[in-house]
Amino acid sequence: MIEAQNLSRRYGDFTAVDGISFSVKEGEILGMLGPNGAGKTTTIRMITGFLPPTSGNVTVAGKDLFESPREARRQVGYLPENVALYSEMRVDEYLAYRARLEGLSRLELRQAIPLSLERCLLTDVRHQVIGTLSKGYRQRVGLATAILHNPKVLVLDEPTVGLDPKQIISIRELIRQLGREHTLLLSTHILPEVELLCDRVVIIDRGRIIAEGTPQSLRESWTGNPGIRLTLKDAPEEAGEVLARIPGVVGVKPGGPGAWTLECERGSDAREDVFHAAVKRGWVLLELGRERGATLEDIFVRLTTHDAAQEGAAEAAPAPPQELQESQEVVS
Amino acid sequence: MNGILATFRRELRAYFFSPLAYVVLFFFLAVNGIIFVYLVGQLNDPRSAGGPPLGYFFRASWLMLLLLGPVLTMRLVSEELRSGSIEVLMTAPVTEGQVIGGKFLAALAFYGFLWLPTLAYGAVIAAYEPVDWGPIAAGYLGLLLIGSLFLAIGIFSSAMTRSQLLAAMMTAAMLFLLFLLGVFEELVNNDAAKKALGHVSIWNHIDEFASGIVDTRRLVFYLSGTLFFLFLASRALEDKKWR
Which residue in B41, B211, B52 sits closest to B126, CA to CA? Predict the structure, then answer.
């Protein structure tokens, strides 16, 4: 749905975005993650056609953004970072204006506006002047205009910034619903949001993509093999050997009296076998649990911290797989 | 076309929703009324030279356009640049030219609306003596042409900056320069320069229009000038992207 090839954008000597390529498949929710100033907004502005890239290409729904800008823009609904609305207009008036701008006919407009209002839970405030609405409502008005012309692609730039927790939850719920019908590109620096909403993540830093994958695969690739932690009462001597023979276990590390950490093959869960082994031998199992893997937050912090001391720590971390090692070099 | 029409509707609406419009309307009508009453009073004096009152009225009241131009246009683009609403506007399937065109037409429509009440002056005069409507129509045409050039210049300044104040000042400076050309005509000694300045002197133009002369050279001057500044405005808006 969205193809970005080698996008670069320079402001004078400063390179805000440096050769970014990615694609968003139909029906997918792609999260764009990065610290403030990483180039997320610039990238998004190039995809929506607001900023022309210094070099590179964007295709939206098969339409090249520079050869047929109007057709391409028609396929995109855009919620910018700062939702600027005309504060003297009423909500429904504003939507009508936006609908006409998108080229909707009178008939289409009459159907589209109540639908957008309803989906964004704005029906009650439709006659209210926009200037009197709270930030959360304005954000929803922004979303309502983005989906008004039923675009194939929705681009949302930090949709939950500046909202209170309750509003954040309702906007996220709305985004999740929209994700079922639209292809979604979502930029954010809030990590739980990505885990909650996105199928795939692109991490951007200093204008480059430094990691890419599903939240799951990113986590796994940085955690290494999944681990199991267990504690046995009275520390039976043969435990180490027995545990090592459990299928799927590739390594056993003792961790204090009676405590063990098992390294398992990817995708396996040996907890059940550990339990049965313990029961068979009459061991008392005090604790059994999965080792907490790296969260997206850990990965994000590791990838985007440029401080020298932190960088040393990142290198000492479990070896990331090949594709991430390459991006690691970009960081250091 | 959608772009022009949607922008036009929204901007015209915005004029009537802003307090500024009513303040402008009030002072515009007040000053016009004072000019008209004073003129009629003077012309009633048996020692006066006489002549059609509205002719004098046009020659005097166009000067207000020097103020009206900046005031009516300063908000148009600057406000969008400042608030950031330009971002959703320019990512809609519309071109810069359509946006500028729609805004210009809205400003022109509001400008026309301001003059509407002055039509009553003609009716008042007609109640007392026979009126030659030709020069009056020509006078209004002149005001429309001068107004459209001034508004186009104003939109151009507005598209140059996100500060309304700066936009108003730039417009005022350009309009004042244009106004001064008419003054310079009287001052220069060089014949060629005098002739050239005479062609661009708004004083001369309104004088002609008010006496009922519609010269195609003036039509070309104002229409091409208007289009030129609207073109510059849409270029200025486009240029904002590249920085």
Answer: B52
Average pLDDT over residues A33-40: 84
Q: Mark yes or no for CB contact A50/B87 under 8 Å.
A: yes
Burial A69-106 (b: 16+ CB within 10 A, else e): beebbbbbbbbbbebbbbeebbbbbbbbbbbbbbbbee
Instruction: Determine how many CB atoms are found less than 10 A away from the CB of residue A288.
Output: 15
| Best residue of B8, B22, B87, B103 to probe chain A, by most A CBs closer than 10 Å | B87
Domains recognised in chain A with CATH numbers: 2-219 (3.40.50.300), 227-290 (3.30.70.100), 296-331 (no CATH)
Whether the predicted pLDDT of B220 surpasses 60: yes
CB pairs under 8 A between A and B: 69
Amino acid at A93: E
Per the CB < 8 A criterion, the answer to whether B66 and B172 are in contact is yes
* Per-residue pLDDT tens digits for A185-225: 999 877 778 888 888 989 888 888 888 888 877 777 666 66
| Selection from A238, A229, A231, A221 nearest residue A323 by Cα | A221
Alpha-carbon span A233 to A211, nearest angstrom: 43
d(CA A74, CA A58): 14
| A264: three-class secondary structure by DSSP | strand
In which band, very low, low, confident or very high, does the pLDDT at B216 lie, cut at 50, 70 and 90?
A: very high
Q: What pLDDT does A300 receive? A: 74
Chain B residues with beta carbon closer than 8 angstroms to that of A89: 10, 13, 17
pTM beyond 0.95: the answer is no
Min distance B134 CA to chain A CA atoms (Å):
40
> What ipTM goes with this model?
0.86
Mean confidence (pLDDT) of chain B = 91
CA distance A215 to A30: 10
Query: For position A196, what pLDDT does the model report?
Result: 82
User: A292 falls in which pLDDT band (50, 70, 90)?
Assistant: low
DSSP reduced 3-state for A289: strand
A229, containing H or E segment: strand A227-232
Using pLDDT thresholds of 50, 70 and 90, give the confidence band for residue A312: very low
Q: Where do the H-state alpha helices sit in B18-50?
A: 19-44
Q: What are the boundaries of each domain within chain B?
A: 2-242
DSSP state letters, A2-57? EEEEEEEEEETTEEEEEEEEEEE-TT-EEEEE--TTSSHHHHHHHHTTSS--SEEE
Residues A107-121: what's their mean pLDDT?
Answer: 91
Q: Is the CB of B92 less than 8 angstroms away from the CB of A102?
A: yes
